[in-house]
Please model this.
Amino acid sequence: MTTLVDSHCHLDAAEFAADRDAVLARARAAGVIAQVVPAIRLADFAELRELCAQHVELHPAYGLHPMYLADHAPTHLGALRDWLARESAVAVGECGLDHYLPGLDPARQRELFAGQLCLAREFDLPVIVHARHAVDEVIALLRRHAPLRGVVHSFAGSAEQARQLWNMGFLIGLGGPITYERARRLRALAATMPLEYLLLETDAPDQPLASHRGQRNEPAHLVEVAQVVAQLRGIDVSEVAAATRSNAQRLFALA
Model:
């Protein structure tokens, strides 16, 4: 069986409350052997920790997501630091910048993102980055706080922006959007970028694949993402799986 790592999945989300065990079982049956589960706000940290403690294949990351700016108090960066100091985490995040949704104060976003980049350096952890309509600014901030390592998840930028990121040692996370034929730029990137900088993800329950339009996404669907990458590159899916699994295990120090 081809085995995969879902490098970005919000399995703690309320959308999975009714059937989380079944979702996990389907993922295991599909060959998804590990999932990185990034937090989005301080209020979710404890529940995420308990969920990951119950399932060996789930690995927690802790961060303050820019889309939930209203939930982040000025004290939360300090609380995140205290949490990272006493809890096990595979990364800092999800964090970053979102200039797509209206009403999200850019200055406050930059402050929170920069603070989390400093924490990633302090604790020698990779960072899981959200960059929506903000890739150039994210790149600039990553350079300012270098050296850092991590992944820009659900990447939607240009090939040149991707190249700048992997030249800094960052990986590129691709998922459901590449299964849509209209996503020509992303599909071209998936077809040509160096495999050593690629991570596969679902971002479940969000970003359903073309074959599951309008439905809840889930980790088992990662197999189809890998198959699309393999088709675009003209290689066997086992090669995509092996490379991206190794990349995730190396970046997040997964057993």
